[in-house]
Amino acid sequence: MAPLVIKYWACHGRCRGLFQMLAETSTPYEHVTDMGAFGAAHFGAATANLAPPIVVDGELVLSQTVAVYTYVGKKLGFTCGIDTPAAEAQALQFMTDMNELHSELMAEANAGQATGDVAALQAHLTGARYKSHLAAIDRMLQGAYFFGGEAPSYVDHYADFVVTICYEKFLRPVEGKSGDTLAANAPRLMSMLAKLRARPSAGQLPDLPAVPPELVIPAARVATWK
């Protein structure tokens, strides 16, 4: 059987959780980083797949991060507690909420690119919407372990990649100004991720940067925080 193929840039990014699930199950895979070979419609290819990550498993070619994590997670057995239609709907809600967390942070961070500041991001991080968003996500984690129970699921791995890219691109650079907004507003989430990141498989990720360095908010912009 041909190995599963992951088409994505040379970083962990949105594939962090995929890499860890594959490592934990010793599943062989190929990581294609050549953008010309992605086969993404947004980059000019005549395909049904908009953008990376794109996963190829035999004849199946799948994109959209929620779909990819759900498929790979179920294929590899990362389904603890997600065994009813209700649980699957809650898993979808949780992943969608996580994705929107990143989208809103990215929008506010990008708003300051032209003006060279972090004013919009500062207003967002200190405002009620961001805090209520994290608090709502945190309320969905009722157990002492992971999203669905005592073992990690694809939902936990999805949350890990979202928090990682949000932190590395937007939150870490301003943490000296804002404080640790993740721990302050989503303690259950961060406790769950600490357990996930302590697993041996977390040390078996490919030797790649978490995010492309050019996507990290530069120090000159951080200095404009008031």
Quick rundown:
This protein is an alpha+beta fold. Helices cover 49% and strands 7% of the residues.
Description:
This protein has 2 domains: 4-76, Glutaredoxin (3-Layer(aba) Sandwich); 85-222, Up-down Bundle (Glutathione S-transferase Yfyf (Class Pi), Chain A, domain 2). A 4-stranded mixed β-sheet has the order 2-1-3-4. The relative contact order is 0.16. Helix 1 (16-24) packs parallel to helix 2 (65-76), helix 1 packs across helix 6 (154-178) and helix 2 crosses helix 6 (154-178). The protein has 226 residues and is of the alpha+beta class. Strand 3 and strand 4 (60-62) form a beta hairpin. The chain has 9 helices and 4 strands; from the N terminus they run E-H-E-E-E-H-H-H-H-H-H-H-H.
The H-and-E topology, N to C, reads as EHEEEHHHHHHHH
Number of helices: 9
Biggest sheet architecture = 4 strands, mixed
For the secondary structure, the number of strands is 4
* CATH fold topology of the largest domain: Glutathione S-transferase Yfyf (Class Pi), Chain A, domain 2
What structural class do the secondary elements suggest?
Answer: alpha+beta
Q: Give the distance, in angstroms, between the N- and C-terminal Cα atoms.
A: 57 Å
Unreliable parts: none
- Strand order across the biggest sheet? 2-1-3-4
Shape type = globular
* The CATH class of the largest domain: Mainly Alpha
* Binned strand content: 5-15%
Question: C-alpha Rg, in Å?
Answer: 18 Å
